[in-house]
Amino acid sequence: xxxxxxxxxxxxxxxxxxxVLHHIASPxxxxxxxxxxxxxxxxxxxxxxxxxxxxxxxxxxxxFSDADTLVPWTLGxxxxxxxxxxxxxxxxxxx
Length: 95
Prior knowledge:
By secondary structure, this protein is α+β, with helices and mostly antiparallel strands. It contains one helix and two strands, in the order βαβ. The protein is extended.
């Protein structure tokens, strides 16, 4: 469980949580999950939390009509060093 990770405190140089927090039911449980990330990372380490939001800025090419929306992942051209796909996005094909 993300709220009680069976790892020693101050063990890792870094930790990541990508597209996870929105799956945790309440704001309090989300805070506990982030606290666990901080607990297992060494002092001076880094934590990356990337949280999806249903609300998007005006002009965004992503428009979510429901909390559970599939956002397909598309890869750029084979052999390309560019991480962006042909429509200028960061690798996520929103349609």
